[in-house]
């Protein structure tokens, strides 16, 4: 594919790593950062010390704090801000009022209270006025490894097959392999729900439990994710793919996972407020745990692991007791729903 003009909104770990993939593919990339000091550092020193130290940005990336300028005459816009920033970011895009041939979001979360997925939040804000091609990019992909060009596979999904194909063409290279899917519901839910399970595995390991507990949470966790996802209209097979099992594995086992690390610190007895303050980066699983609990109640789906994690995060439950209660549940068949 020929070189395209692409904007990446969000200069955190993931936005920066995705911009590097796009720049490596020869595209002309503009990153939008919300702080002037960060934009200046990225432009002048080609670094992003706060979010991805040790990485040098390619020459074909420029950084601006002006959304209008970032999205001017762009073939594609990539959105990579936390779920809590999605509505405001979409509103700023609408204010810039430029038609965009392709919009790809790379955010993993569900909004508490509205219980909407990220693409639904964007639709509700009116993204369709700017683009009829909305896709999501998700999968096992820590920014730290992507930025170092280590082999990575992801899925891009859209209800519009051509949008998924355009996204694949834009990102795909020899280190970054991209698959397409049309199950946007499943791909978005997989990316959001696995963060809850990573908090759970971190909690268990923080308590000193071993690989058996980790395997239990991951395996029963994917069952829980699939049960809820299927009820919400996802293809169950999606949860066996990159944006389900693949991302669950990487987030529950990687030293880079903020969700795992947050869970681990909680398991060591550190308070949630302190954990979040220490992290300095987004831990999406915390708000997603709240959203999934609400969603499961609304849909009448049993999510015992999520409920246990919710109680530890928000109801002062001791992680040891939460684990005991999970183990003491009524006997079940493994495949029972
Ligand atoms: N890091 C990773 O490896 C991966 C992350 N993701 C997902 O990507 C999304 C972004 O995460 P990530 O880049 O890691 O997060 P980081 O914490 O590394 O960076 C967050 C970025 O978003 C900006 N930001 C925060 N709040 C807002 C807001 N309200 N409006 C606009 N910008 C905002 C921050 O700006 P400032 O610095 O000014 O606060 C910063 O640039 C998350 O949903 C995450 O789950 C997906 C795959 C991999
Ligand atoms: O989604 C991710 C990897 O695929 C990043 O996970 P964390 O937010 O837990 O670091």
From TrEMBL:
Enzyme Commission number(s): 1.1.1.94
First and last residue of the signal peptide: none
GO BP terms in the entry: carbohydrate metabolic process; glycerol-3-phosphate biosynthetic process; glycerol-3-phosphate catabolic process; glycerophospholipid metabolic process; phospholipid biosynthetic process
GO molecular function, a single term: glycerol-3-phosphate dehydrogenase [NAD(P)+] activity
Keyword Oxidoreductase: yes
Pathway: Membrane lipid metabolism; glycerophospholipid metabolism
Residues that bind sn-glycerol 3-phosphate: 108, 139, 141, 194, 247, 257-259
Gene Ontology CC, one term: cytosol
Catalyses which reaction(s): sn-glycerol 3-phosphate + NAD(+) = dihydroxyacetone phosphate + NADH + H(+); sn-glycerol 3-phosphate + NADP(+) = dihydroxyacetone phosphate + NADPH + H(+)
Domain Glycerol-3-phosphate dehydrogenase NAD-dependent N-terminal: start-end pairs: 5-163
Domain Glycerol-3-phosphate dehydrogenase NAD-dependent C-terminal: 183-321
Residues reported in the UniProt entry to bind substrate: 108, 258-259
Binding site for NADPH: 13-14, 34-35, 51, 108, 143, 258, 282, 284
Localization annotation: Cytoplasm
Entry keyword set: Cytoplasm, Lipid biosynthesis, Lipid metabolism, NAD, NADP, Nucleotide-binding, Oxidoreductase, Phospholipid biosynthesis, Phospholipid metabolism
Positions of the catalytic residues: 194 (proton acceptor)
Binding locations of NAD(+): 10-15, 143, 258
Primary role: Catalyzes the reduction of the glycolytic intermediate dihydroxyacetone phosphate (DHAP) to sn-glycerol 3-phosphate (G3P), the key precursor for phospholipid synthesis.
Protein name: Glycerol-3-phosphate dehydrogenase [NAD(P)+]
């Amino acid at each position: 594919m020929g070189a395209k003009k692409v904007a990446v909104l969000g200069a955190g770990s993931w936005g920066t790593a995705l911009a590097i993939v796009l720049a490596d593919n020869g595209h002309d990339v503009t990153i939008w950062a919300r702080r002037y000091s960060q934009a200046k550092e990225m432009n002048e020193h080609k670094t992003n010390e706060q979010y991805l130290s040790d990485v040098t940005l390619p020459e074909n990336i420029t950084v601006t704090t002006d959304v209008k300028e970032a999205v001017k005459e762009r073939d594609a816009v990539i959105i990579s801000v936390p779920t809590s920033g999605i509505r405001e970011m979409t509103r700023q895009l609408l204010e810039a009022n430029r038609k965009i041939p392709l919009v790809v979001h790379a955010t993993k979360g569900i909004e508490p209270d509205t219980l909407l997925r990220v693409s639904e939040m964007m639709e509700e804000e009116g993204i369709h006025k700017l683009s009829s091609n909305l896709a999501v990019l998700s999968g096992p992909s820590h920014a730290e490894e992507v930025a170092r060009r280590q082999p990575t596979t992801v899925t891009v999904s859209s209800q519009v097959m051509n949008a998924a194909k355009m996204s694949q063409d834009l990102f795909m290279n020899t280190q970054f392999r991209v698959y397409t899917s049309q199950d946007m519901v499943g791909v978005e839910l997989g990316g959001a729900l696995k963060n809850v399970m990573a908090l759970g595995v971190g909690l268990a390991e923080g308590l000193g439990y071993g690989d058996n507990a980790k395997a239990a949470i991951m395996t029963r966790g994917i069952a829980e994710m699939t049960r809820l996802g299927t009820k919400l209209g996802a293809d169950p097979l999606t949860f066996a793919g990159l944006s389900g099992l693949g991302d669950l594995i990487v987030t529950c086992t990687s030293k880079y996972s903020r969700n795992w690390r947050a869970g681990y610190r909680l398991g060591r007895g550190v308070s949630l407020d302190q954990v979040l303050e220490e992290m300095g980066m987004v831990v999406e699983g915390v708000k997603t745990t709240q959203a999934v609990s609400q969603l499961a109640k609304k849909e009448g789906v049993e999510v015992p692991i999520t409920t246990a994690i919710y109680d530890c995060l928000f109801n002062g439950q001791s992680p040891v007791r939460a684990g005991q209660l999970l183990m003491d549940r009524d006997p079940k068949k493994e495949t029972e729903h």
